[in-house]
Structures are given as structure tokens and as C-alpha cells.
Amino acid sequence: MADPRVRELAKRADEWFLRRQALAAARAQVPRRDQLAGRAFNQVRLLREITRQVGETAEEPPCGHRAAVLLGLYRELVYWALVAGERGEPGSNSDLAGLWRQVPRDRLLAAAGSEENLEAVHGVLEMSPTASLDTTDEDVDRVRAFADALHDQLAAPRRRVARVVAQRWLRLVGVAASVVTIVLVIRSLAAGPNLVKRENMHVSSRLPSCSVDPGCVDLLFHTDMENGPWVEFDLGAPKPIHVVEVRNRPDCCEERAVPLIVEISMDKVHWKEVARQDKEFSRWKAKFPRTIARHVRLRVPKMTFFGFASVAIR
Length: 314
Hints:
single chain, 314 residues, 7-stranded antiparallel beta sheet, 21% strand
């Protein structure tokens, strides 16, 4: 049986990564869509969109008082917002006035911001249809701000769920990225350092126009057209090597580097072939038995241009 401390540590790690308990607690605060509170919140969202469209339309409305129409919509919105916040049946309080008395005053005050503003909002909401014809834009703005605050109260648990879900994914992605980085570092360390140094590179020729050719300027090297072009790397001293990795020119002309011969030497006089590639490639990793060499040469035995994006010798 696992040590209790190990189990507790695993439990904490599971919670930190997957946020199961935090997500369950956050979701418990969000009413289901089939519950009255959930359906009421959907009405709130719908009415907010309708009021936005009515309030922002640039078209000239028919004769009538737009502010009174908006007030009617906001009155309906406030009603459903209060229903959604109570999570229960309105019961006998099926109108806004009765529901207003039922809702805890702290919730109303939090949405209004002050006692004075709450009383002002209440007064506007209690206007009769006839009195609403004298509604001012200031009255509508006051009720709109109150309705928006009620909506924010209702949306807070949903935002909390979204934050916890985002935390879960960010942590999982972060851990995955860390694992990938560690694996790449381990592979790099296992492969050994790249022994290629640009200053110790020699080529059989250089393409004069390479400095102004967009496809050539970023390459490690590029020769002119010639028979049997090559590139040599001086490792500085005899060193054990067993891998040569090359990345071909990425924009075109992969066939120019085929066939490709990899040769090694101690004195630049006697060369030994250790690898050969006879098929076109974008990347090629040549492996051969570990051997000691001072010089490495890549050669193409034909009339061609020759250039690579990168070369690694390990």
C-alpha cells in the first residue's frame, strides 16, 4: 500500500494540474440550462442583445418615444436577472414589484452602488406605461447600468468556470512544453555538441550573386556552378564523430545535392568515404561507426551548384 504522504502528494498534484475540485465548485454555482435560473439567464442575455440593437440602430425610428421602449425592455431584463439570481420559483411574486421585495437588499445595493441610486432606479422601474412616455435618456442610462451590474453578478460564476478551465489547460500545456524541452535538451546532450564552426569552413567556390539572392543569402554556404563542388570543415583537432546532419536549401533545388558523399580525413590528403545519399532530401542524418577525424568534407560528384542551410557534425 502506498505511503499516505505519497497519496496526499499525488492528490495535490492531480488537483493542481486538473483542478477537479475547483472546477466542480465553480460549476456548482452555475445553474443548469434546464433550471429556471438557467433559462432566466438566457432571457437576460437575449434582452441585452435586443436592447443593444434598439439603442444603437442608426435608422430613424417611427414616431414614438424610444426611451420608453428601452425602459420596457430593461424592466423585463431586470426582472429575469432577479429571477436568475434567486435560483428558485418567483412564486406569488410574479411581477417585478413583488420580486424586488423578495430579493436581498444587499444584492440590489451592490448592483446600484449606493442607496440614493438604488432608490432612483426603483422609481424609474415603477413608472407606469403612461409615465414612461416622459422617460429621459438619463433615466434609461441609470437603469441600463443597474441591469448591466446584475448581469455581471450572474456572469461571475460562469467566468470563474472559464478561468479554472483555462488554468487547467495552461498548466497542462506548460507541463507538456517543459517535458518536450527537457527531452530535447537530453537528446541534444546525448547527441553531443555541433563541431561545425563557420570560421573553420572552406568551400570549393562561392556564388557571386548569393548576397543579393533571397533564396541564397541565409544559407550556410553556396558554391558556383562547377564540377564536383565541396565544402570542408576543420574540427580543429582529431575528434571522435559518428553523425553528420544536413538541411538542404528549403526553397528549391534539392536535386543539386544528390548524390552527396561524406568523407573524413586526418591530413586533407587521404579521404575516406563514411556515408552517401543518392536520393533527394530536405534533411538527412548520416550515421556511421564512431571514428576519429580532423577534417570532414561533403562533396557532390557532378556539374552543379551546391548549398546547404545548415550542417551539424557530432
